[in-house]
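User: Can you help me understand a structure? I only have the sequence.
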Amino acid sequence: MNIQKLMKEAKLAQKKMAEAQERLASISVEGSAGGGLVTVTATGDGAITKIKLDPSAVDPADIDLLEDLITAAVNEAQRKSKEVQEAEMGSAMGGLGGMGGLGGLF
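Assistant: Let's start by predicting it. Here is the structure, written out as C-alpha cells:
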C-alpha cells in the first residue's frame, strides 16, 4: 500500500467533506404539519431557522394541539435535513472507495 497515495486521498476526502458541510449550511428545507398550520424551516445541517404559525393554529384552549403540530413540523424538517445530508455526504465521498478499504470510514 502506498502511504503517500493514501494520505493524498485522505486530504482530498477532508476537503470534500468541508465543502459538503458548507453547502449543507446554505440549503433550506421545510417541514409542515396540520395542512400548513405550522411550518418549520431548517438548514441542510439541521439548524432550525424559522417557525411559522398560522394564526388559526393558536387556540389558547388547545395548547396541546399546537405543541403537537410544532413537534411534528420540526421532526419533518429534521428528517428532510437528514436526507439532504446523506445525499450531500454521499456525493462528496463518491469515488473515494479506492482508499485501501478506508472509504467506508468517511
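Now, to help you interpret it: The beta strands are 28-33, 38-43, 48-53. The two ends are 19 Å apart (CA to CA). Let me know which part you'd like to focus on.
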